[in-house]
Design a protein that fits this description.
3-stranded antiparallel β-sheet, alpha+beta, 6 strands, 3-stranded mixed β-sheet, single chain
């Protein structure tokens, strides 16, 4: 392999400088200071971890174990709630009226009669709410679904999910904001009185082939959910996108044109016939 080369002058100079720097650090006491800092930091960390462990132990000892009522074998107690809406106007902005909706929930000990879904309880306080002249003129321009969106007094249709005031000229609720009167432009199921049975005039006609006047006169009218649930017609289902997705079915979209081309009165009649044929094929 050959003999190792002798150390160069550069390496000798480098080693001499390293020894010189170590002696200088030792004379200044920096090495001792660094070791002391490391010991202080490590002791502070250990004290913090110890305090955290003690706190967790004390909290576990002092606080009772949390268990659900089901594990405790305690029957749930349901207390009916009363909901109150208050409509207030604030003039904090310069010359602009800002409407705010106040929501209150009070517990009561007595059972509350369920209101119709097309007449939800909304209490007006501090002022009598009125539509602007422009909104009042536009309200009845679209009788099918209404033209004025109102987040407080509007009633949401289960199918199109538009929270609008109805376009009926004789509706005292949407026209004069009489909260004790039902909206005559939205349906209400005589069985469930829920939002599932609220349809506007256009969706009721296009999706189910029914007229609003006939539904309002029929005090025993039931929504598609209740018709199916009671077994009156198992194929008469709600064809809203939400309900079809729950059935693992694709939403129909604008199926009214296909339904009318095939001679069906509405989308619900088309789906009813398709479900009947599918049921017969599976038997």
């Amino acid at each position: 392999m050959g003999r190792l080369r002798a150390k160069s002058d550069y390496e000798d100079l480098r080693n001499a400088r390293i020894l010189e720097n170590k002696e200088r650090l030792a004379s200044l006491g920096l090495k001792k200071t660094v070791s002391e800092l490391h010991s202080i930091i490590s002791s502070a960390k250990s004290a913090k971890i110890h305090a955290r462990k003690c706190h967790n132990t004390l909290s576990r000892i002092s606080l009772p174990l949390r268990r659900s009522d089901r594990l405790k074998q305690i029957s749930p107690v349901s207390t009916p709630l009363r909901f109150q809406f208050s409509f207030r106007r604030s003039n904090r902005l310069k010359g602009k009226s800002v409407h705010s909706l106040k929501f209150e929930c009070n517990e009561v000990g007595e059972e509350i009669m369920k209101r119709p879904a097309n007449a939800p309880s909304v209490e007006i306080s501090d002022l009598e709410h009125r539509l602007s002249p422009d909104a009042s003129a536009r309200r009845c321009s679209s009788k099918g679904r209404g033209s004025v969106y109102d987040p407080v007094f509007g009633i949401c249709c289960h199918f199109c999910r538009q929270k609008k005031l109805c376009g009926e000229e004789d509706c005292e609720r949407c026209g004069n904001f009489d909260m004790d009167k039902p909206c005559i432009g939205k349906t209400d199921c005589s069985v469930c009185h829920s939002s599932n049975g609220v349809f506007c005039r256009a969706c009721l006609k296009v999706r189910y082939g029914e007229e609003m006047e006939e539904v309002i006169e029929n005090k025993k009218w039931m929504c598609p959910h209740c018709v199916e649930e009671k077994g009156i017609n198992p194929y008469w289902i709600c064809n809203s996108s939400l309900c079809l997705k729950k059935r693992k079915m694709a939403p129909t979209g604008l199926a009214i044109y296909r339904a009318r081309e095939m001679g069906y009165e509405s989308v619900a009649h088309l789906l009813m016939d398709e479900l009947k044929r599918a049921d017969l094929c599976n038997r």
